[in-house]
């Protein structure tokens, strides 16, 4: 279905194999999902994105579950089917309850509605909202 | 700048005035921002969106600040200038620190990058990610 | 503000001038708006788009006002500030009332909300909706 | 395929069942489509969206078929596969002819093209197009 | 899967058949892909889009392969599954190597990331970037 | 206008100052544009994005000018005003002629049109276009 083949573990160049090892160690799961198997044709890009993602999505001022829900919101707005599926699964694995998911969906829906209205009417930004 | 005039308090129909009163009472601020002034040409739509937004953005399984950050993420993806400004201001008023905003931006950037790559390569969804 | 200069009538190549003449004759207004002045750097592209637009937006199975409202809807979804402004002005010039605009906005908002929800949940298409 | 299971009639909470009853009564069809079955995990959200949609999409200053075509236009721009299918089916059920659909597609295509060009060149809005 | 049936060669109106003949002659392949078979319900639109596309995508100041890669970039950003597949196949047929595709993907990812950040922060355009 | 203040050189933390020095050395221009001044509130993110961008946009299997044009295409599709301006300026500085820009715009417009049509009709992908 994709525009590139999905590489199996046996197909990987050594640099890509090292990234897969780190994905498995970091996530403590055996399954390496299709996004990385598609990206593995370019080991340098694979490593760059995985390393940055690992840092960005880890704990910090925001907890990892909040970050996964933000990821879902962006993915819905960008109409990314793969990303909606994979990050909803990740969010659930990190503890997103049915109630949390329902509220996440409600916010995504509300934001999309008012985004479209503000873009249709081209509402000018209030002075009070601009950074000084 | 907008496609409709922004109604002042003196221009409001009674149903719209009641919504403005509720906005002021709920948010405990005098300033009613431009989005509502543009929407007020249609008091029924103004009331429907405000009432739904008030419910959706209030506390629940997710706290109001988390909801504002999700709103910012959707607004960035939808390229809504007004919404990015207004919800960043709201998130700050609800306690978003510089560190939280920096991490929010990092997640938005990372999600947008991998969304585009998954959409370019049309990666098929892993069976493990589908709801049963 | 734009990435190209806006050509005045005196700057136009002959092929571009002919298109401007046709815009004025077709619309029966003297004002040629900025989109065409930006596009006029490439007279062939200017002519191709104007001629196609003139045909597409004219009367047919759908009336010209319905077409303008569809144009506004696409422009809001694509976050095109210029297009939202210019086609709202065109729709008003063709008879869009305040009530019609309010309902148009309500449909745009509703569609954007359910689009985002369907994209977030990746709802599978019902068999009944597929063309045979 | 979706991120949530699709609820059958037997799975519904009472509040969701009441919404399904109203969908069937309003549309006078037995089939309740997948979007509502996915949304039914959150009966409050299901009820809120259905009730608003029922009002927005009904007759008013714009006829229901025009509203369905506007919905299709937004859905194409937002790349919502589910919505494109379901609202094209609805529009056909409400009388959209092949000629009307062809013209709708032509307007969607034309708007998307000029949206992209205006966004690429960042054409400034003509003074004449701004609301006073 | 689509909202319209895909016309076989036997279903074509004469004007559509002439376009299919030209597609085969221009591309020197027997296979006419599904996009044109869906569009063929409206022969006038089919002819208008094919003729414009043939001109736009041919050699000029940019070579045809560069144009295909630009097409892929737009398609990823618009989340168009069909277009990502068809234009990746076209680009490969015109000589896109694995290394070129990998770099194309990297640029698409980088642009999407910084687009989202600039849209989230609403960075004002530097004076130096505006056309004079 | 932005949601964050734009840092002047005097406001920079040491890690951000080092990035600015590298931007000036790499581009051989004194002007550091606003995007980096907004991002500089988070020096770690500033460094991560600049270093990745420097690598991605440099020469490789694709030349730097081709990459800038791909960046413009993504930016138009994502409706990023800042990015359209900044990368059009970059492309011109790297040698994009008026003819090249005109053809770039034509491809962006054509791709956006057919993307929208494919998304509206939900055309299924031809088997011939799928990776084996």
TrEMBL record, chains A, B, C, D, E, F:
<feature type="domain" description="Carboxymuconolactone decarboxylase-like">
    <location>
        <begin position="47"/>
        <end position="123"/>
    </location>
</feature>
<dbReference type="InterPro" id="IPR003779">
    <property type="entry name" value="CMD-like"/>
</dbReference>
<dbReference type="InterPro" id="IPR004675">
    <property type="entry name" value="AhpD_core"/>
</dbReference>
<dbReference type="Pfam" id="PF02627">
    <property type="entry name" value="CMD"/>
</dbReference>
<dbReference type="GO" id="GO:0051920">
    <property type="term" value="F:peroxiredoxin activity"/>
</dbReference>
<dbReference type="InterPro" id="IPR029032">
    <property type="entry name" value="AhpD-like"/>
</dbReference>
<protein>
    <submittedName>
        <fullName>Carboxymuconolactone decarboxylase family protein</fullName>
    </submittedName>
</protein>
């Amino acid at each position: 279905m994709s525009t590139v083949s999905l590489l199996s573990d046996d197909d990987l160049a050594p640099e890509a194999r090292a990234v897969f090892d780190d994905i498995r160690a970091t996530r403590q799961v055996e399954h390496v999902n299709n996004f990385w198997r598609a990206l593995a044709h370019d080991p340098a890009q694979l490593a760059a994105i995985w390393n940055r993602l690992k840092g960005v999505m880890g704990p910090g001022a925001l907890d990892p579950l909040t970050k996964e829900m933000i990821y879902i919101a962006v993915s819905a707005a960008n109409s990314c089917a793969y990303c909606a599926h994979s990050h909803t699964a990740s969010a659930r694995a990190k503890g997103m309850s049915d109630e949390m998911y329902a509220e996440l969906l409600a916010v995504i829906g509300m934001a999309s509605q008012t985004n479209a209205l503000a873009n249709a009417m081209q509402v000018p930004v209030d002075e009070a909202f601009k950074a000084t």
